Amino acid sequence: HSCSPFTRKLLPPLAPPDNLLKAGGKGAHSAARAAFAEHEERLLALSFTSIYEYLFLLRDASQVLHEARKRGLIYLAAAVSDFYVPDDELAEHKIQSTDGGLALHLHSVPKMLGEIKGGGGSDGWAPEAMLVSFKLETNAAILKAKAAASIRKYGIDVVVANQLQTYKSQVTLVFAEGDEPPLSIEVSGDETDEVPVSGVSTTTLNLPSQGGDLEPLLVAELARLHDLKLSDEESVTPRRGGASMRIVS
Question: Which parts of the chain span the membrane according to its record (predicted)?
């Protein structure tokens, strides 16, 4: 249960994460409290419970980060549903049981990733920020192709691609080679052989044999890629403590 970066190892709390972390405790609780105390002044935790809240917060947070320009890093780790029921289609009262069962029609959640970079123009929410998103699949054969499609369609800089079966122990970072986006690949989802993709590079991170968490390795690698991006584009000193944002469900 990932309610915030510092409480994800704890059981789902009855209190808000901030209150939980300010209380006493032992073991994992104590470690989470220490990590929270170290970063508290630089962490603004914004909770959400609906897709509407998430999309509005994503827009507002991205627009604020626009001031950081290329030093901004947007890390979209929130697990957002692909489908939803619009407010105007929600039942006002309890749905009564019927002998015929219940048919539920779900709508696709609006794809807002493209609004962040604005198609490479200047009208995006944070067009110069480094944009990192996640892609989770159960079929390894289409994973890289789906990640490449996201890069091309939404202007994403890095896609953290993982499989449901191994997401805690292995992730693959997918990013475009050079300035040109990768070729668009159409997949059905049922492929058994890996779909070939051109125009992308990959880096695979594995959980060390001694255990622990994969996330510190992932964050460190993304920070390194951000430093390289800044150095290549601006010839500036690599980012240390620069503006960054992480959205976590």
Answer: none
